[in-house]
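User: I've been going back and forth on whether these two constructs are worth ordering. Before I decide, could you fold them both?

Assistant: Sure. I'll take them in the order you sent them. The first construct and its C-alpha cells:
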Amino acid sequence: MRELASASLLRKARARPDLVRQVVNRARTGGVRSTLAAVRSRLDEDMPLGYSAAGVVVSAGAATDGIRPGMRVATASVGHAEYQAVPGLLAVPVPEAVSDQAAAFGAVAAIALQGLRQAEVGLGGSVAVVGLGLVGQLTVRLALASGLNVIGIDLREWTAELVRGGGAVGLVEAGAATTEQIMELTRGRGVDAVLITAATPSSEPVARSAEIARDRARLVVVGDVGLELDRRRFYERELDLRFARSYGPGRYDRAYEEWGIDYPIGHVRWTARRNIEAYLDLVASGRVAVDDLVTHVFDVERATSAYEVLASDPRSLAVQLSYSAPAQPSRRTITIRPRRSSTSPRAGLIGAGNYAKATFLPALKAAGWVDDLAAITSAKGLSARHAAERNGIALVVPTVDDLLVRDDIDVVFILSRHDSHARMVVRALDAGKHVFVEKPLALTQDELDEVTAAYDRNSGHLFVGFNRRHAPMTAHAKQVLEAASGPLTIAYRINAGTLPESHWYHDRRQGGRVRGEVCHFIDLASWLVGEQPRVVHAYGSGRGEPGLEEDVSVLLGYPDGSTATITYCTRGHRRTPKERLEILGRGHTVVIDDFRRLEIDGRDVKRVPAGKGHHELLAHVRGVIAGNAPDDLDLQASFGTTRAALSAIAALAGIQEHSSRLPTQADAETSVSAGFNS
C-alpha cells in the first residue's frame, strides 16, 4: 500500500489497468470534462495507511459482543490513527500476557496464519517459506509452533540468520545449490508446501517454488508476486496453486466486516477474527515471540521518518508507530481558515465522499455558495478535512450533532449514505435549519411520513437533489411542450452499467438502485408531464432480491392520459450513452441524448447548454432561501416522486405484476401530511 500511495500517476496506471479501462469507458459515455474532474478528485485524496494495530477501547456499540471500554484489543483493517472506529468482529481482546507491541501484529500475523491454513500441512510435515520479510518471518514462527519442519529462503543473509535463531533452517537463495540442500533435508522428496511471502513483480519466486515442492504439493501465494508461469512444471508434479486472501474468511465480506454477522463456527472454524485470536493465544502461551521483529519505533509525530526508514534502511523489518492519546476522544473542531463574515446564508455539509468532492462541491461554487461554505463533517474525518482544505471550507466539525447546534449554520446539505437521509432531514429541520438532501428523500413510507411531519412542524425549507428537472435542456423542452396541451408519451432508457460487488449500493440497507437512481428518472418524467403519476406498474428481471433488482421497467400513468416508460438496464454495452429521453406529444418530438444533445422536431438545438442541472438546482436553492423564488411546487413534486418510487418497489416485490394507484393532484394535500401506502 505504501508503494502504491507514493507512486507516480504512470506507475499507478500500470499497476491497475482495470481502473484505467473504467476511466476510458466513463469518458466515452459521460464526457471527458466530468471524468477528468472525478479522476482528479480521487487522485488528490489522502490515502490512510496501516491496517494492524492495538489499543484501548474507549466506547463500544451494543452489538459488539465481549468488547467493553477499558479493554485492550488488537484491531484490523483500520488506518493509523489516535482513534479508530473498528468493526466489532475485527477488534479482538488481548490476553493479559501479551504486550501491546506484540498485539499490534495481530492483523499481519493473521495473514501469515491464513497462508498456513491454505497449505493444509499436518504435524511433522515440511514447509518452505519463500521471502523472509515481516510476513515471512511470522509465517516461519507460526509454522514452527504448529510442529512443522520449516525452511526459510531469502536473498538476504541477515533475514535467513533471523529464522535460524528461531529454530528453522535459513537458506540464502542460490538456485540449484539451494534446491539440492532442500532435497537433502526432505529425504529427496521436496517440501509438502511452499508459502510464497515475497513481494516482487517477478514470477521467479513461484517458478522456483515448483522446483523444491514434492509431487502434488501445495503452493500458496501470500505475497504480491508475478504469475507468468511455465505450465509444464506444474503439470508434471500436479501441483496445487492456491492464494491466501488476507486475514481469512470474512475479509472483504460486507456482512462480516460492516454488519458484524459472524460465520457459524461449525461451518467456518477459522475466520479473520479467530485467526487473530489464535495468534494472540500462541503469543500468550509463549509458543510464539515477535517483539524482537520490531526494528524501529517512532512516535506518531515522527511518522514521516518511520516511512523514510522503511524506504532507506535495508535492515528495517517491523516499524511501529506509538501514540500517547488522551483518555477520551477529541471532539475538537479544526479551523482550516478564518471564517469570513457574510450576510448570505451559511452552509454546512454532511458527507465528503466522491460525489461530494467531484460533483457537488464544484456545483455549489458555480451556484454562488463559494464564500458561504462554513463547516463540514463526515463519518471519516480525514475525508472531511481533505474536502475542507481543497474547497476553502472554514471548519471541520467532529459530528453531525456538532454541526447542527451551530448558530452560524443556516442551511444543511446532506450527502451521506441513503439509509441516513430521512433521519438526518428530520433532525436538521427540527434544529431550525433549511435542508437540502441528495436523493432519495426516504427509503420507506414510514420514513417519508416522518419527513413530511417534520416539514409541517418547522419553518425551514426542504429541497431534494432531483437536479435533472433543472437542467437547461429540460427547461427548454418543458417550455416548448407547455405551449400546447394534451397527453405526452415518454420513453426514457438508462444504460446504468454494472457495479462491483463491493459497491455500497449492494448493501440492502441502502435501498438499492430503484430507490437510489430510478427515482431520478421518475422525477424527470413527472416534471415534464406536470403532474404526479396516478398508477405505477413495475417489472423486474427476477435477478436478485425482490425489490432490489437492478434491471427494471417502470410504467407510469398520469391523470391527463400521459404515460412514461422507464427502462433501467445494467447490462448494455459500456459505450452506449447512459441516458436517452424521447418525448412525443402536443405536436412535438423532443429527444434529450445524455444531456449533451437536444433535438426538437428532428433538428438539433445548439444554443441550449449541456449539463444535468446540478448548479442550476443549487442556484434555485439559494434563491428560495433568500426569498426570491417559491419552492412549494418543487417540494410537492419531490414528495410525489418518492411515493412513486416506493410504489415501484412494492410492485417489484409482488408476484409477477403489481399496479399501485397513487393520489391524484386533488389528493395531494392530504397525502403529503398523511402519507400513502401502496
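The second construct, handled the same way:
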Amino acid sequence: MNNRLWAGLALVLASLVGGAHAQVGDERVLMAREALRNGDRATLERLAAGREPHVLDPYVRYWLLSNKLARPEPPPVAELTEFLMEESDTQLADRLRADWLRRYVRERDWESFLRLYPDLREPDAELRCHQRTARLETGDTAVLAEVRERWMEMTDNHVACEPALRVLALDGLVSADEIWWRFRRQVESRNPTAARATLAWLPHRGTAAGANLEHALSTPAAYLDRLPANFAATRVGREIALAALVSLARQEDPRGAYMRFERISDRLGHEERAYVHAALGHYGALSRLPQAADWYRAAGDVPMSAEQRAWRVRAALRVENWRMVKSSIEALPSKEQAQPEWIYWLGRAEAQLGRPAEAAVLYRRIAGEPHFYGLLAGEESGQLFAPPVLAGTVNAADIARAEADPGLRRSLALYRLDMRTEAVREWNWALRGQDEAFLVAAARVALSNEIFDRAINTAERADPKGNFDLRFITPYRQYVEPQVRQQGLDIGWVYGLMRQESRFVVPARSSSGAQGLMQVMPATGKWVAGKIGLSGYHVGMLSDPDTNVLLGTSYMRLILDGLDNHPVLASAGYNAGPNRARRWRDDRSIEGAIYAETIPIDETRDYVKKVMTNAVIYAAMLEGRPQSLKTRLGTIAPRLAAEQ
C-alpha cells in the first residue's frame, strides 16, 4: 500500500475517532477564516495554537503563517519550515512557498528567492518571471539568452517579466526591428497600453514620441487627420501612424482606417503597407466586411500573429472563397494546421474544389471525435453521432482509493463548508499524476456528493472521448423537464446550454454578475420575470434552482422567438445578447457552421460551438438514436436592412 493511501486511511480513522467533534472542528475552521478576513490576528493566533484531528486543521495554521508573511516584521522562518515539512506534497505547502517567494520579491532578496524557488511545484506566470529577474540580479546572465529565444512569444507577458526584456532591449541584444515587432503586436492586442513601455526601450526615447502615441491610441482618427507633412521622415513617425491606423480599425471602424490609410500609403514602405493590410483584414473580418478577404490578399506573406492567420481563414469562409480557405490554411504553421477546426475546413475546401478523395482523408483524421469538428467531419463521411457506449461500473478498490485520498477528503470537507475556491484547488491538486482509473473513480465520488462540475471535469481529464455518463449528466431534471414541456424547448439544447453555462453549480456567479444554473443576469431576470408575470422578483431568487431554471428557459424561449427560432442564433444571443446575434448575420443566407466559425467574440464563438455539440450528445443519449449536428446548425437567414 502506497504512502498516499496510508495517509488517507489515517485520515478516515481520525475522522471516525473524532466524529463527535466534527462540528466543533468545522466551527474552528470557519472562525479562523473569518478572523483572517477581518484582520483579527489575535483570534487567528489563538485558534492556530491548538491542534485538532480535523482534516482541515492545516488551513488554520496556513492562514496564520500567510498573514505573518504579509506583515512587515521578520518572517517566522522556523514556523514556516516546520509547516512545509509537515505538509510536504500538499497544495497548502505550495501556496505557502509562493507566499514566501512573493515576500522575497518585495524585499528584493533574490538569493533567498532562488534557494526556495526549486521546491515550488506549480509556479504561476508571475513567479516564473520573478525567477528570471532573480537570476539576472544575482549575476546569471545566461537567463538573457533564454529570454532572447522567447522574445517573439512574450508580447503578452506578465509585467514581472519586464526587467529581463528591458535589459535585452537597452543592451542591444535584440534589434530595433524586433522591438518594433513587439510594439506592433502590443498595439494590436486588447491591452495596447503595454506598447508604451516598449516604445521607451527604443533609441529615440523621449516625451514627444510617448505623447504622440498616447494621442494616436486614444483618438486615432483625429491623430491621422492631423498628421504632419513630414511624419514619414522617421521610423518613429511612421510607426505611430501605423499604430493609429490599427487602433482605429480595432475600434470597429476598419473602413475609416482604410480611407485614411489610402491617403498616406504612398509614403509608407512595402512592408509597412502589407502590415496595415493584414491588420485591416483582421479587423475587417471581425466586423464581417466582405473587403476583409481582399485586404488579406494585399497583405501577401507579411508575418502575422496567430489570431490574424486564423481570421484570414475566417474572412475567406465568410465569403465562401474556398480557394483562399485552402491556401490560407496551408499557409498556417504545422502546429496550427493540426488543429481540428482547420483539418475540417480544409476538408470542406478540398470537397468544394472537386477533390473528394483528399477531403475524405482529412475528415477521417477527426471523424467521430466528440467535439464540434469531429461531429461535422463524421457527417461529411456519412456518420451521424450515435448514442455513446456508457462506461461500466468502477472497480470498488479504485473508489476506495479515491475516497481515501487526503487531497480529495480535504476538498470534500471544504465543499461542506461552502469554501468552493479552496475546494477546487485541493481537488485539482489531488488529481496530479493520477492514473485514469483513479480519475474515473474520483469523478464518481464527486457525482455521489453532487459536486457536478468536478465530476464532469475529472471524467473529461480521464478520457475526453469517453465517460459520457459522467461528462453529460442531467441533474435537476425535476426543474428542467417541466419547463422544457412548458416552453416547448429541446431538452438536449437546454441541458447543453446549462452544462456550458454553469457545469450545474447552483451558486455559480460570473465576473459580469450572471448567477445560478443558467447564469441569468439580474437585469435579465427582472425583464423575463415581467414578461412571464412572475411577481415579487428580486435578485436573491436567482440562487433558487427552480426559479433560475424557470427564468433561464423562459429567456431561451423569448430569444428563440425573436431569432428565427434558430438555436444557433439563440445560443449566440443567450451569451452575447440578441442584438449582436442579429448583427452577426450576413446579407445573404449562410450555413450555420460558417456563422458559428465567424462569430467575432472568442468566448461566444467557443460557447456556441460547445452548446450545439452538447445538444447533439445529450439528444443522442436521451433519445437513444443518432443525431445530426449539421441539421441543428442549419442555415442562417440574411439580416434585415435595419440591422446593417
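Notes on the second construct follow. The two ends are 68 Å apart (CA to CA). The beta strands are 590-591, 635-636.
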